[in-house]
Amino acid sequence: MLTREIPIRDAILETAVPRLSIVPSTMDLSGLELEIAHERDRAYRLRDALAGLNATPNGGTEYSYVLVDCPPSLNLVTVNAMAAAHSILVPLQCEFFALEGLSQLLKTVEQVRTSLNPGLTIHGIVLTMYDARNNLSGQVVADVRSFMGEKVYDTMIPRNVRISEAPSYGKPVLLYDLKCVGSQAYVRLASEIIQRERSLRAA
User: Fold this and answer.
1) What are the extents of the domains in the chain?
2) What is the Cα–Cα distance from 8 to 36, expressed in whole angstroms?
3) 3-state secondary structure labels for all residues of 91-144
4) Which of 15, 54, 97, 177 could form an SS bridge with 162, CB 3.0 to 4.6 Å?
5) Which whole number is the average pLDDT over 180-193?
6) Given this model, what pLDDT does residue 102 score?
7) What secondary structure letter does DSSP report for 31?
């Protein structure tokens, strides 16, 4: 899709989750940077692929949200996602170097906003792998909330064995074990994101 061999519609697959479709990838995506590095529109491949995807004959929308899962490294794939996105949701582990990584990400977002996508915003930051028994986790939470204020979601995703197990069964954790604390945290997070989205649209 990103090399323009097929349109995005030919890459869409239905899932077992109602109203959820995916465009999957493989490790071959890591070679994209070398393949399109010298193309003038290399930063806009994803934006162009997504163009018109939501349009329906009656003027409505086919998809309510398009979520782009990015690699942790700030490479051309991530830049493509930022150039195509309206906003960014940042997962941040409650670990020692969290703020350092966040600071670098904020600089990158500002560079993308200046040069590629003026409308790009940070929707929010979600704290993950939180361990209430660990003093370091509590300190990271305090530091991030002090640094980013209301941009940090109230919901935190705890360390949870069931979350770690779910991918090995090929399922999202909500289908693997809806009642576990990790799943319930993600349900609360989804609700919080939707409420924030509604507030932003109303403003």
Assistant:
1) 1-74, 86-151, 160-203
2) 18
3) EEECCCCHHHHHHHHHHHHHHHHHHCCCCCEEEEEEEEEECCCCHHHHHHHHHH
4) 177
5) 95
6) 86
7) G
Structure tokens at 13: 């697959």
* Cβ burial, residue 160 (10 Å; 0-12/13-18/19+): buried
CA dist 113 and 75 (Å) reads 16
Q: Around 193, how many Cα atoms within 13 Å sit in the side-chain half-sphere?
A: 19
Kindly report the pTM of this predicted structure.
Answer: 0.85
Instruction: Name the β-bridge partners of 89.
Output: 124
Q: How far is CA 51 from CA 11, 47, 84, 115, 119, in A?
A: 15, 6, 9, 20, 16
Question: H helices within the chain, ranges in order?
Answer: 32-36, 45-50, 76-84, 98-115, 135-148, 161-165, 173-176, 181-202
Q: What angle do CA 76, 79, 85 make, to 5 degrees?
A: 145
